[in-house]
Protein backbone atom coordinates (compact mmCIF):
# COMPACT_ATOMS: atom_id res chain seq x y z
CA UNK A 1 0.00 0.00 0.00
CA UNK A 2 1.23 3.52 -0.74
CA UNK A 3 0.58 6.75 1.12
CA UNK A 4 1.31 9.41 -1.49
CA UNK A 5 1.32 13.12 -0.73
CA UNK A 6 1.36 15.40 -3.76
CA UNK A 7 2.78 18.90 -3.69
CA UNK A 8 1.86 21.29 -6.51
CA UNK A 9 4.29 23.97 -5.42
CA UNK A 10 5.18 26.56 -8.02
CA UNK A 11 8.63 28.08 -8.05
CA UNK A 12 12.07 27.16 -6.83
CA UNK A 13 12.21 24.33 -4.31
CA UNK A 14 15.26 23.61 -2.17
CA UNK A 15 15.35 20.88 0.41
CA UNK A 16 17.19 19.84 3.54
CA UNK A 17 16.56 17.29 6.29
CA UNK A 18 14.17 19.35 8.41
CA UNK A 19 12.79 22.01 6.09
CA UNK A 20 12.13 22.67 2.44
CA UNK A 21 12.12 26.15 0.99
CA UNK A 22 9.60 27.11 -1.69
CA UNK A 23 10.46 30.50 -3.14
CA UNK A 24 12.52 31.14 0.02
CA UNK A 25 9.53 30.37 2.29
CA UNK A 26 10.31 27.70 4.91
CA UNK A 27 8.03 24.66 5.03
CA UNK A 28 8.33 21.44 7.04
CA UNK A 29 10.03 18.63 5.12
CA UNK A 30 7.07 16.82 3.50
CA UNK A 31 8.98 13.52 3.48
CA UNK A 32 9.22 13.62 7.28
CA UNK A 33 5.62 14.68 7.84
CA UNK A 34 4.33 12.07 5.40
CA UNK A 35 6.41 9.40 7.16
CA UNK A 36 4.64 10.35 10.41
CA UNK A 37 1.24 10.22 8.69
CA UNK A 38 2.11 6.79 7.30
CA UNK A 39 2.94 5.51 10.79
CA UNK A 40 -0.41 6.81 12.05
CA UNK A 41 -2.21 5.18 9.12
CA UNK A 42 -0.48 1.86 9.84
CA UNK A 43 -1.47 1.95 13.51
CA UNK A 44 -5.10 2.83 12.66
CA UNK A 45 -5.29 -0.03 10.18
CA UNK A 46 -3.85 -2.43 12.76
CA UNK A 47 -6.43 -1.22 15.32
CA UNK A 48 -9.21 -1.88 12.82
CA UNK A 49 -7.99 -5.39 11.98
CA UNK A 50 -4.87 -7.18 13.21
CA UNK A 51 -4.27 -8.66 9.75
CA UNK A 52 -3.92 -5.15 8.33
CA UNK A 53 -0.93 -4.70 10.63
CA UNK A 54 0.95 -7.14 8.39
CA UNK A 55 0.53 -4.91 5.34
CA UNK A 56 3.54 -2.94 4.17
CA UNK A 57 2.79 0.76 3.75
CA UNK A 58 5.31 2.85 1.88
CA UNK A 59 5.28 6.63 1.74
CA UNK A 60 6.34 9.09 -0.91
CA UNK A 61 5.98 12.70 -1.91
CA UNK A 62 5.40 13.73 -5.50
CA UNK A 63 6.02 17.15 -7.01
CA UNK A 64 3.51 17.73 -9.80
CA UNK A 65 4.39 21.27 -10.85
CA UNK A 66 7.36 21.54 -13.25
CA UNK A 67 10.06 22.83 -10.88
CA UNK A 68 13.74 22.53 -10.26
CA UNK A 69 14.73 20.75 -7.05
CA UNK A 70 18.10 21.56 -5.48
CA UNK A 71 19.43 20.18 -2.19
CA UNK A 72 20.78 22.78 0.25
CA UNK A 73 24.53 23.09 0.79
CA UNK A 74 25.27 20.51 -1.89
CA UNK A 75 23.74 17.73 0.24
CA UNK A 76 21.60 15.27 -1.64
CA UNK A 77 18.25 14.38 -0.12
CA UNK A 78 17.54 10.67 -0.08
CA UNK A 79 14.09 10.06 -1.48
From TrEMBL:
Residues 1-64 form the NERD domain. This is NERD domain-containing protein. It comes from Algibacter lectus.
Amino acid sequence: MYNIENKDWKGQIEGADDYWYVNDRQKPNPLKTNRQKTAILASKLKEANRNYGKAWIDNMVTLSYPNSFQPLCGRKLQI
